[in-house]
Design brief:
- This protein is mainly alpha-helical.
- Helix content is 71%, strand content 0%.
- Helix 2 packs across helix 6 and helix 5 crosses helix 6.
- This is DUF1109 domain-containing protein.
């Protein structure tokens, strides 16, 4: 009994107050306000032109950008919620619908572009921009998830990577022609898959529970 009392006394002296995790919505707002400016600065090194929104097809491009931003926000919200025990991410159906809506919108945009022969490497600039813009976003995401850790590191990081990919697509909309060609879209998708893979593989050891 004496040993138990001594242990309790030791733990009482070393115990520290637990800092309450901010609400998920506030974490998402903070995340977005950090990743968009830093991602824009990182990507700006590769793209120095702005989108001409007066061109035909601008409405479709604007819709795709809006869907990308909403999908990115929903994905990171789900990642943060999943990292806290007892909370559930947003239903996968909603995120799936947003992703499919974004894809269909871009396919419609690409269908308006005349089919022409494409040189090897078309769309590589888009790929490089998205990867460059994603790097600071990955850092912020891993830091945010590390604060709470997670029982499901792969799922949480995959959702975070999805959110990052869509946020980079949102930024790309501001320095990309409003008309989309199929090689561009394919490289956008390739960049998204690469971002998700890097986020999962690079962040797992930092956010998983020991």
């Amino acid at each position: 009994m004496g040993n138990h009392d001594k242990l309790i006394e030791t733990l009482s002296r070393t115990a520290r107050p637990v800092t309450r995790t901010p609400p998920t919505l506030w974490r998402v707002v903070s995340w977005v306000s950090c990743v968009l400016p830093t991602g824009a600065l990182a990507g700006w090194q590769l793209r120095h032109t702005f989108t001409d929104w007066s061109q035909p097809g601008a409405l479709t491009a604007l819709l795709a950008m809006l869907l990308a931003f909403i999908a990115g926000t929903v994905a990171i919200f789900s990642a943060f919620n999943l990292s806290i025990a007892g909370r559930k991410p947003i239903r996968p159906l909603w995120l799936t619908l947003l992703v499919m809506s974004w894809l269909v919108t871009n396919l419609i945009n690409a269908s308006h572009t005349p089919i022409e022969p494409h040189a090897a490497g078309d769309g590589m600039h888009c790929y490089q921009f998205m990867l460059a813009a994603s790097l600071p976003m990955m850092v912020f995401s891993v830091i945010s998830l590390r604060r709470t850790r997670t029982l499901y590191p792969t799922r949480s990081l995959a959702l975070a990577g999805c959110g990052i990919a869509f946020m980079t697509a949102t930024l790309l909309s501001f320095c990309h022609p409003v008309t989309l060609e199929m090689p561009d879209l394919l490289m956008h998708l390739a960049a998204a898959l690469t971002i998700i893979a890097i986020t999962v593989l690079g962040g797992r050891r930092w956010v998983a529970l020991d």
